[in-house]
Amino acid sequence: MSAAPNKKPSFALGLILILLLLAAVILYNLTNINVSERIRELSMEAGRNVKVEGKENNLLELIAADPAFNLSLEDLQKTMEPARYIGRSKEQVEAFLTKVVSPILEANKALLGVKAEITV
Predict the structure, then answer these.
(1) DSSP assignment string, 26-74
(2) How many CB atoms lie within 10 A of CB 16?
(3) What's the Rg (C-alpha) of the chain?
(4) How does pLDDT run across 5-55, given as a tens digit for each residue?
(5) Do residues 4 and 54 make contact, with C-beta atoms less than 8 angstroms apart?
């Protein structure tokens, strides 16, 4: 079977999830399990669900259902809120647009809207 389109778990999401789970393990003193190995196993299962069966990525559900982690699905979902990890990027982008891009556009506004064609 082919993989389901647009359902590939992102690499960055996986790394963030692993770091957060390892932090939770330390916080909740879950030292009696090999967390990284269990995450790998559950990640492989979730990947198989996406790639082979065409299902949604259910890694968070698998982790929440695993008694070794003692974490609720709600807690895991809260950790996946992107706004928690972007820091000052919004302000930095706005400053870049204001200080760098806008002056260039203003200085070249006479050229904007001009269409050019290249014929080979």
Answers:
(1) HHTT-TTS-HHHHHHHHHHHHHHHHHTT-PPP-HHHHHHH-TTT---HH
(2) 16
(3) 22
(4) 444 556 566 667 777 777 766 666 655 557 778 888 998 999 999 899 999
(5) yes
Residues 50-63: b if buried by 16+ CB within 10 A, e if exposed = bbeeeeebbbbbbb
Both structure tokens of 56 = 């949604």
Q: pLDDT tens-digit profile of 69-116?
A: 888 899 888 887 777 778 889 899 999 999 998 898 888 888 887 766
How is residue 81 written in tokens?
């809120």
Matching residue, tokens 């065409």: 54
Decide: residue 25, CB within 10 A, 0-12 exposed, 13-18 middle, 19+ buried.
Answer: buried
Give the integer Cα–Cα distance in Å for 87 and 101.
22
Determine if residue 87 is left, alpha or beta; phi over 0 gives left, psi from -120 to 50 gives alpha, anything else beta: left
CA 110 to chain centre: 40
At residue 43, what is the residue type?
S
Q: Is 117 helix (H, G, I), strand (E, B) or coil?
A: coil
- The answer to whether the beta carbons of residues 71 and 63 sit under 8 Å apart is yes
